User: Fold this.
Amino acid sequence: MITITRSLVRQLRSVFRRAGFGRRLGAGPGSGQPVRFVADATGLRIQCRSLAAAVEYHQSGEFSAESFAVPFEALADCAGVRDDAVTLSLQPDHQIEIGWTDRGLPQSKRFADCADDVRGAWPTTPESWTAAESRAVAALRDAMQTAARDRGRYAIDCVQLRGSTGQIVATDACQLLMQEGFSWPWSGDVLIPRTRILEAPELTNPSTIDIANCDFHVALRIGPWTVWLAIDNDAPYPSVEHVIPALDGATTRFRITADEAPRLAEALDRLPAVDEDSSPVTVDCNGQLVIRAKSTDQPRTTELVLPRAEVTGSPLRFNTNRRFLQRAITLGFHEVHITDAAKPLLCQDDRRKYVWQTLTPEDALPPTEDCLRIELPTPPAAAQNRSGSKGHSTGNKQLATRNQTASNRTTPVVPSRRNRHVRPSASQPTDPETEVRSVRASLRQALVDTRRLLAALRHERRQNRVVRSTLASLRQLQAKAS
Assistant:
């Protein structure tokens, strides 16, 4: 009998699902890859695999020799957040009985032993490992999210690990992410498949990571987890260096502040769009940074102004897929270098380069007099620091300017979720915490607009009372005169 905890079952299910083991190719729901349990004197190994990847969880200790496999769906019922015991025992009739306690009530289920359904031999365990930087997991995860979902002429559904230069390269033919500064234990280039397994919380922030090249796999050892990714060098990988613009060739640059970045990423997702697939927005760099968007059912252009963004170089206007701009912000880039409206854009730091292709320049939206002009909200701390660093009179002028801007506003700073035309991209899922912040920001802005409208109504009522009082006085004077 093998005993583990419900919380471990929950972790196993989370990691295996992200690895794509929850559903077999061509099979229906609930028909995932079998999960194999192998126990011996060296410990317990819980394994699951597909053609492209394999994952193993190792729990040290001394166990009685035992080996069997259960269907993937067997993990669903006994998973939990507590460390209550889960027992798995092989019965004489080749059934696997799983027992656990749910809220004090004993539960049990039986499943057929799926050992015969486990296809292929388990990948070779490396004899030696090479220590890698802990940031390698995050770098590989970013690369996986950049690679394409489907293969075309080139193997762009893979990530390239360059042994000679220590680089990680990923592209989907529209965007490119190149990261460097790594040391791989091989000399050539290898391709590993795109997978979401490194997005699992259990593998997100490792203290140590080891890597090895074993036969036909690249193996990663992250704490008690070992991941094998099949090497796929059969298809060619594109040469990407020629599409990366030269940094000194940029004629225009814009930079957003660190506190503006998350607000801009959220606001971009709420701006209208003509086409959900390309999600176009126009970025106008002409003294200040302005982002324009429009939808088919909204005749007026929406303009989002970033008052604190810094724009340098020649005035330039380009058209781009907003998801790539969001992606650059998510990766931590705050400065964009532009060579030409029709050429790729570049974000760069000391170890990374992110490049994406713009859309047709002729489709860029020009400024219009009847646009819905909104301003990216300034964080309270930034606003306080900005006003506190200047004199009292300057602060009063800024306050008056902000009040005047608020009174002229015709639409909230962040448009309502009901007006959103673009769904979040699959590579960037919206978590509940982000949704809470989004709703909170919308409610806060609604409260500001309500107060502004209420103040305007009160002002109008005071003016009406003054007018009525003046008319009454004029009537009295007219009556006395007659």
In short: The chain is about 25% helix and 30% strand. Helices lie at 6-18, 74-78, 135-146, 260-270, 322-330, 380-388, 392-408, 432-481.
